[in-house]
Each structure stands twice: as structure tokens, then as C-alpha cells.
Design brief:
It is a single chain. By secondary structure, the chain is an alpha+beta fold. About 25% of the residues lie in helices and about 30% in strands. The chain contains 14 helices and 36 strands. Strands 2, 3, 5, 6, 9, 15, 17, 18 and 19 form a nine-stranded mixed β-sheet that branches. It is elongated. It starts with about 25 loop residues before the first helix and ends with a helix.
Length: about 750
């Protein structure tokens, strides 16, 4: 998902007050139950229970506050590294066979799902857990919406939900063999009892160790009006989080597990997804005039009957499936990636007529991203990429990722070297990049969003940097007035990294957060942390490490400990990697080094007494001054072309450094009037340092971190000092501000 308001622009979302009356679950059921809660009262269903009580086999759930995993996974985790010689890309655990029919008037999807699941553990399984993500949008009392009220969280642009805009997923029937399966709504994260995003199925027939079972599930989706990720607007339907999806049974040695456990969390406001790899065979029936885009490869020619068309899409070795249907879609824009690093990939862009200007740029950015990610991480293993540009008023469906399928952003005009061009490029690259970090690597976005949103943001900005692309802050109108302020990609990224006062560890989970801004900092702070670590390890070494990370952990759900271990092993610098992770991933520590003072003074004769030939001789203040003046005159006469800052006396230069955060190795360069320099490496845990030089010339300036290795530094403006006051920056900022103010005044005058 793209939180450009956090990461690319470095801005915070506007706060909206969530006004709702929270009803207790018992009151809701006993007084005026809605459709969802009537369902909960059916004979085969219990309303809720706590995180572990009631499981038929006693297999526990991942903790309610599970987050970063420091411990590297076992070498044989998830079946061990994929060599490429296996019959499938992943160790497939699940198979989804689904028939789905869209009603575009009622905005419903009627589904029949055959779910086949394999028990990888060495013990019998009698209860399985599934996600019903769509229930996050059933009302204000879901975990998703309650976090707006209880935590004051906001979601991106915070589109309000009005009457009739809600959505849900209704389980109509669940059968194992010929036996009905009872289900119970559970709350793994101790969320409100009115949340229905996680359900437990108690199986009539246990699944033996290494065995499989098949569940037949009939369900009905009521799609919400698009407020977050999924839903409809008009005829446009972005169908995500739409089918009952089984959780992940983790085994010992996988992401820190010491015994089998179900990793299945409620759908939080800021969290995303985590699931097993498998095969999807999906048949989508829509009105015949509707265009369909979906995860995977379309099979054969769509079948028409009774005014409807059925499309079949198949994709193996993915862990999710999403699709789009609309009758306003313009003619698709198609191309093929034939570059190095990956097999041939068909790329399709589906877009509404009003955003035709965005289609070609989105196509180019996708193909460029295929080339960059293929060469710097590893091959893209699928045959297709489908890009969806949502229509006007469905923006919240944009900036979202699914395997081989993602949504970008739309603009009616895209001009070169503008913020709009950068925004469209970046969101497209970002959502494609998720296909690697969320898709192929299968990171746990619930517990370790850093591994997906954060690392993806970092790699996206590397690509932007390699393209030589900068961010133009000025609008075309301001540029015509001579105002064209630009910033480099990682310079912009650090603005959203909460460098002054980070509230939560970068590796924390997605829901235990101080604020929405703190969750947003996962993007920028991870990218900035990795930028700074790359500066210490070296660009080539870092890229080599990430290639190894991808090669080792693709299709295997790595944890943060696995990333750290790979970086340490490949770089051969485990202490540097450990320090960065301890400071910025596993804890919350700010970095704020600065040049406190810089002085450079002549060492002229001083007044006072001294012992000369056994007698005390005094030099008065006047005598010292006269002696200094005489020496200067003699020297000036003998050196008429002397540069400023040189003279008959040496200069004592004093540099004082201050540390108000964690320690990092700092490089400081002091420049002198004759062009010479002195270099200091400050690499200890002390809170301050002082350095002195006696040289025949005066110091001119001092610069800390001249190569810009530490973008986590809270304030880069105090990283340099000059002996002589320099108002260049202030004059430039004042001039640009004055120009902007004059423009605004002139604009007002014309209204």
C-alpha cells in the first residue's frame, strides 16, 4: 500500500473526528440485531470467544502484540530455500477454487469456494482459522473502525462512510465432506467482541499430520463503497479481501516459533496481510459489457451466456487474489517486458477515460520497475502484471498491491518535471515493488510491516535515485515564475522519518502504534535507516546482500532476524549491522549530532610574566599588542599577495561537537584558508568531543557528514559551521519566499 502522504511528501494526514456510538455486543444482539449479527446467532455459530479458549486441538495463536522477530529462522524453514528445480515455485500449502458472480447493481459477489489445505505440522489439527477481511467494513464497531475512535487513528485520506456504504462477508454454508462445520468468531488481538474479521472452524474430521482437507464454503460479499483498499464507486468494482482466506500455521523454526502456532490477526486499520502460498483457480462472472482485470493469467476465451461473461484466471505460487470489473474502462494499454533478468512479462494497464493521460506513464514506470527489480533483486517469476488506475472519486482504491495485480493513481494531466509526474511514477513503482517484498518474499505485513512497506520504499527510492530523477516541488505555474525548488529522493524521504522524536521502533507491528503518523514513519524511517546503513556497508555490498536475501527467502516468509543475518553475513560487518538494527529497528532512538562551535584565533604574543635567564620578565598588554602589530606589518610587506586567513602567527582552531542522540560514526572535514583540510572520524559513545589544531592558516569552515551518509540525523542544518557569517542560504530562502508571497498577492488581486 502506498502512504504517499506519509512517505513521498513527508506530510501528515488531516485529523478527522470519528463520531460513533459504540454498542456492546450483547445489547446489539438482544435489541436490534443487524444482518451480520443475526448470522452470528444461527445454530452453527457462536458470537465470539477469547484468543485461545475453545480450540479443539490446543494449538495456540500468535500473541496479541507480536512484532519483530530477532531470531533467524531455521535453515529448513518453509521447506528450505527454493533451488528452482522443484515442480512449483513455492511449497504450496493451499488451493483455492472459486466461482464468483458480481451483481453490479447491488454491489454483491456471490461465491462458492473449494478450499483445500495441507497440514504441514507433525500433529493433528482439529480447528482452523480464517480471515474474513471484508467484515472490517461492516460498521463502526469492527477493529478497523474502532481504532479510529479509541486510538485517534486516521487512514490515508480518511474517506467518511455514509449510510448504505458499509460492506461485509456472510458465511452461508461451510461443509467438510458431508458434515456441516460450526464456526466461531475469535479475537486474536483482544479486539472488540463486535469484530468479525477472524473466524475459527471446528472440523468434524481432524486433519492428520501431513494430511489435507477440503472445505466447501458458500459466501456472499456486500462490497462497501470504496473507503479503504476495496469496494465500489458507480460501476467500478475493486474486489479485494473478498473471500474466506485461511491463516498461516507456523512451525518451530519459522519466524521465531518454538511450537506450531496459528498466525492470524484481526484486520487492523493500518495492517495488511499474511498468508500461505498456493494455487488460485478463479472464475469470475460479470455482465458481458464489463472489462475484467485480475491476478494471474486468463485462461482461454471468456464464455458468454445469458448476458453475462465468465472469465477464468489461474495463478500458482501466490498468496492472494484480487480483481477489478467496470463497464467504463477505456481500451486496455498492453505491452511486453522483454528486458534482462526475467522471462517475458505481459503488462496491461486498465484505466478510465478521464485518466487516459496516466496510462502511458504508468505503463512505462511498470516496465522500468520490472527491469530494475529484476537486475537488482532477482527474476520476476510470473507471466503477467496488471495495473489498475481507479476512476475519479475512487482514489482510496488506488495505491494498493496484490500478486501480479496492483492499483496506481490517476491524473487528467501529467506534465514532465512536475510533482504530478513524480507522484504517478513513484506510486506505480512502489505498488509494483510490493510484488517482490509482499508478494514473492511473503513478508508478514501484520507483525513486521518494515519488511514490506519499509524495504519496498527503500528499494523504490534507490530506483528513483538510479534514474537520476528528482522531485519538483513547484507547480507549473510557479515554475513559470522562476520558482522550481527540487529535492533528491532520499532527502525528501527523510522528512517523513520522524527523526526528531520517533515514537515506535521501526520493526514494531502495524497496530501497536502511537499514532497514524508513527505507522506512516515505517515507510520513510525504514528507507532512511537502510540508506544510512548502505552508506556504511557500501552500495555494491548492500545490493549483493539483498540479492542473497531474495534468493534465499523467496516464497519463504522471512522475519526481520533473517534480514539482519543476511546483511551481516554478506557484508562481513555484523557489528555495524547489529548496531543499526539495535538502534533503529528493535528500539526507538533519535540521532542528532551537530557542530556546536568552530573557532580559529591567531596565537599572538600574550601578556604576562615568564622566566628568562633566571629572571622574571613581564610583557604588558600594550607591549604584546605592539609586538603583534609590528610582526603583522613586516609580514604584510614581505607577502603582498597573501590570502586572507594567513599571517605571521599560527592559528589555534578549536572544533566542538555535540551528540544528543545515539552514536554513529561521523566524518568531519575542516577547511582552511590555504585550501588544506583536516579530517576527523568521531566514532565513540561520548556525548561531546573537542579537537584542536595549530596551523599557519585560519580555518574557514567545518562540515559534518559531508557525504550525507546519515539521513536519520534530526537536523542537517547544524552539520556545518563557517568562521565568517554566510547568508547565502537565508537570502535564497527569503528570495523564494518573497517571490511566492508576491505571486499570491498578485493572484488575489486578479480575483
Amino acid at each position: 500500500m502506498s502512504l504517499v502522504s506519509f512517505s513521498a511528501k513527508g506530510l501528515c494526514l488531516a485529523s478527522l473526528l470519528a463520531v460513533a456510538v459504540s454498542l456492546q455486543a450483547t445489547t446489539a444482539v438482544e435489541s436490534k440485531p443487524d444482518t451480520r449479527l443475526v448470522l452470528s446467532m444461527s445454530p452453527s455459530v457462536a458470537v465470539s470467544d477469547n484468543r485461545t479458549k475453545g480450540s479443539l486441538d490446543g494449538i495456540p495463536l500468535a500473541g496479541a502484540h507480536a512484532a519483530f522477530v530477532r531470531t533467524p529462522s531455521a535453515s529448513n524453514a518453509w521447506g528450505g530455500p527454493r533451488s528452482g528445480k522443484e515442480p512449483t515455485l513455492s511449497d504450496r500449502v493451499v488451493n483455492y477454487d472459486i466461482d464468483a458472480t458480481l451483481d453490479p447493481v447491488k454491489h454483491t459477489v456471490l461465491g462458492k469456494e473449494k478450499l483445500t489445505w495441507r497440514n504441514r505440522s507433525n500433529r493433528e489439527v482439529r480447528s482452523v482459522y480464517l480471515h474474513l477481511y471484508l467484515n472490517a467494513f461492516e460498521g463502526n464497531n469492527s477493529t478497523f473502525f474502532s481504532e479510529k475512535k479509541t486510538h485517534g487513528f486516521e487512514f490515508r485520506s480518511d474517506v467518511p462512510t455514509h449510510d448504505g456504504d458499509w460492506g461485509h462477508i456472510e458465511l452461508e454454508k461451510v461443509v467438510q465432506g458431508r458434515a456441516d462445520v460450526p464456526w466461531t468468531f475469535v479475537h486474536p488481538d483482544d479486539g472488540p467482541q463486535t469484530d468479525h474479521t477472524v473466524v475459527r472452524f471446528d472440523l468434524p474430521e481432524a486433519v492428520p499430520a501431513g494430511g489435507t482437507t477440503t472445505l466447501d464454503i458458500n459466501f456472499l460479499d456486500q462490497l462497501p463503497r470504496v473507503v479503504a483498499r476495496t469496494g465500489y464507486f458507480g460501476t467500478f468494482h475493486l474486489v479485494g479481501q473478498w473471500f474466506p482466506k485461511i491463516g498461516v500455521l507456523e512451525l518451530p523454526g519459522e519466524r521465531g516459533a518454538t511450537e506450531p502456532r496459528w498466525n492470524v490477526h484481526e484486520f487492523h486499520l493500518h495492517s495488511e496481510f499474511y498468508a500461505d502460498y498456493g494455487n488460485f483457480d478463479i472464475r469470475l462472472t460479470v455482465p458481458k459489457d464489463y472489462t475484467v482485470g485480475a491476478t494471474g493469467v486468463e485462461q482461454g476465451t471468456p464464455v458468454e451466456a445469458d448476458g453475462k461473461t465468465t472469465h477464468r484466471f489461474v495463478q500458482g505460487d501466490v498468496h492472494d487474489f484480487a480483481w477489478m470489473a467496470d463497464n467504463r474502462t477505456a481500451k486496455p494499454l498492453d505491452s511486453v517486458y522483454t528486458g534482462e533478468g526475467s522471462p517475458e512479462v505481459k503488462v496491461r494497464v486498465l484505466y478510465p477515460p478521464e485518466y487516459v493521460a496516466s496510462a502511458q506513464p504508468a505503463l512505462k514506470a511498470t516496465i522500468d520497475a520490472l527491469g530494475y527489480f529484476s537486475s537488482t533483486l532477482g527474476p520476476y517469476p510470473y507471466k503477467t502484471v496488471t495495473v489498475i488506475i481507479p476512476p475519479y472519486n475512487a482514489t482510496e482504491a488506488g495505491g494498493m498491491e496484490y500478486p501480479t495485480f496492483f492499483t496506481a493513481e490517476g491524473f487528467d494531466e501529467v506534465k514532465h518535471d512536475t510533482m504530478t509526474e513524480f507522484f504517478l511514477d513513484f506510486v506505480t513503482i512502489h505498488e509494483f515493488g510490493h510484488g517482490y517484498f509482499y508478494g514473492i518474499l511473503g513478508s508478514n505485513e501484520f507483525e513486521e510491516p518494515m519488511l514490506d512497506e519499509g524495504l519496498n520504499d527503500y528499494w523504490d527510492y534507490r530506483m528513483i535515485r538510479e534514474r537520476g530523477q528528482v522531485i519538483h516541488l513547484a507547480t507549473p505555474l510557479l515554475k513559470s515564475l522562476g520558482i522550481d525548488q527540487v529535492v533528491k529522493p532520499f532527502e525528501a524521504e527523510r522528512l517523513g522519518a520522524s527523526n526528531h522524536a520517533p515514537a515506535d521502533p521501526t520493526g514494531a507491528n502495524s497496530w501497536d502504534r502511537f499514532s497514524s503518523d508513527s505507522y506512516g514513519s515505517v515507510y520513510a524511517r525504514t528507507a532512511t535507516t537502510m540508506h544510512d546503513l548502505e552508506e556504511q556497508l557500501g552500495k555494491e555490498v548492500t545490493e549483493k546482500a539483498f540479492k542473497q536475501y531474495y534468493a534465499t527467502w523467496k516464497f519463504r516468509h522471512p522475519g526481520i532476524g533473517d534480514l539482519q543475518a543476511t546483511l551481516a553475513d554478506v557484508s562481513g560487518k555484523p557489528e555495524i549491522v547489529a548496531k543499526a538494527f539495535n538502534q533503529q529497528v528493535y528500539s526507538t532512538q533519535a540521532l542528532d549530532d551537530r557542530i556546536e562551535t568552530l573557532s580559529s584565533e591567531e596565537m599572538v604574543p600574550e601578556q604576562g610574566t615568564s622566566l628568562v635567564n633566571g629572571k622574571w620578565v613581564e610583557v604588558t598588554e600594550q607591549q604584546a599588542g605592539q609586538l603583534a602589530d609590528e610582526k603583522r606589518k613586516e609580514w604584510a610587506k614581505a607577502n603582498p599577495q597573501a590570502k586572507e586567513g594567513t599571517g605571521p602567527f599560527p592559528y589555534l582552531t578549536t572544533l566542538t561537537l555535540r551528540r544528543r542522540g545515539v552514536s554513529v560514526p561521523e566524518t568531519i572535514v575542516v577547511k582552511f584558508a590555504d585550501g588544506s583540510t583536516e579530517k576527523v572520524i568521531w566514532d565513540d559513545d561520548l556525548r561531546w568531543a573537542r579537537y584542536n589544531w595549530v596551523k599557519p592558516v585560519k580555518a574557514v569552515s567545518a562540515s559534518m557528514d559531508p557525504e550525507e551518509q546519515h539521513y536519520l540525523d534530526a537536523n542537517k542544518l547544524d552539520d556545518s559551521r563557517t568562521i565568517k557569517a554566510d547568508g547565502t542560504a537565508a537570502r535564497r530562502w527569503t528570495s523564494e519566499l518573497a517571490s511566492l508571497i508576491q505571486f499570491i498577492i498578485s493572484l488575489i488581486a486578479t480575483i
